[in-house]
Design a protein that fits this description.
Number of domains: 1
CATH architecture: 3-Layer(aba) Sandwich
CATH class: Alpha Beta
Strand content: 25-35%
CATH superfamily: P-loop containing nucleotide triphosphate hydrolases
Strand order of the largest sheet: 6-7-8-3-9-10
Largest sheet: 6 strands, mixed
Bound molecules: adenosine-5'-triphosphate, magnesium ion
Length: 239
């Protein structure tokens, strides 16, 4: 459903992503792992249209087989095509309530019933958010803000949900909960592109995985195979 071909991202003199090619099939969980600064966020931010002046081709294939180029298009366009991002560092709006934050993800939709259904879906996945629906985003705990970022990304009813380090900074018990939730969102029919530092947990749920090193893909394979790969074990799974 999404084909990234020879993506290059540069920030001034920094060549953050180098000739990266990734292919995502409908229904898959694909993960991108790698050390700090490897270019993971740059890659998904580029797909979302948040990075200026990228090179390469990003092509989306609709369920009916129609192909659309996403290269150089703005984030609103990606949302229309059914792609959404839960960004790194949560980026929720502290002065808006939980529910208002969730509504923001749905800003471009005009089917009120569908929006209400998707917000309800977010509350079902994260019951804590329902209890706190009227609370200001900024007063949520770190873990709750992370949940809110995921719920907000779901309120645009994405076909492809991209998650940038959803487990970052969470207590172990919440990490398990977040990964279980990602699986559930996938089982319910959505495709997932997951960026993670927690390589072990990400590889366990991924159909396909790419390892990024200094902006380029060093390895790719099935999640289960990479879990057994000696190089991956040594570099990302603590030996
Ligand atoms: N807006 C920017 N301007 C300049 N350099 C940037 C910018 N964003 C990222 N970089 C640089 O590009 C490289 C890749 O950064 P990126 O955020 O994509 O890495 P990452 O794999 O997501 O790392 P982390 O695991 O720490 O989140 C880094 O060297 C970073 O300093
Ligand atoms: Mg990052």
């Amino acid at each position: 459903m999404l084909e990234i071909q020879n993506l290059n991202v540069r920030y001034g003199g920094i060549h953050a992503v180098r000739d990266l090619s990734i292919s995502i099939d409908r229904g898959e969980i694909v993960t991108l792992i790698g050390a700090n600064g490897a270019g993971k966020s740059s890659t998904i931010r580029a797909v979302m249209g948040l990075v200026k002046g990228i090179q390469g081709n990003i092509t989306y294939t609709a369920p009916d087989g129609r192909q659309v180029s996403l290269t150089g298009k703005p984030p609103e366009y990606m949302v229309k095509m059914g792609i959404s991002l839960s960004p790194e560092g949560r980026r929720i709006l502290p002065h808006l309530t939980v529910e208002e934050n969730m509504m923001l993800g749905a800003y471009s939709r005009n089917d009120a019933e569908g929006v209400a259904r998707d917000i309800e879906y977010g509350y079902t996945l994260f019951p804590r958010l329902r209890e706190r629906r009227g609370q200001k985003g900024g007063t949520l705990s770190g873990g709750e803000q992370q949940m809110l970022a995921v719920a907000r990304a779901l309120s645009s009813h994405p076909e492809l949900l991209m998650l940038d380090e959803p487990s970052l900074g969470l207590a172990p018990i919440l990490v398990d909960e977040v990964f279980a939730t990602i699986r559930e969102i996938n089982r319910e029919g959505r495709t997932i592109l997951l960026v993670e530092q927690n390589a072990f947990a990400a590889l366990r749920i991924a159909n396909k995985a790419y390892v990024l090193e200094t902006g380029a893909i060093a390895l790719c394979g099935k999640g289960a195979d990479l879990l057994e790969n000696p190089k991956v074990k040594e570099a990302y799974l603590g030996g």
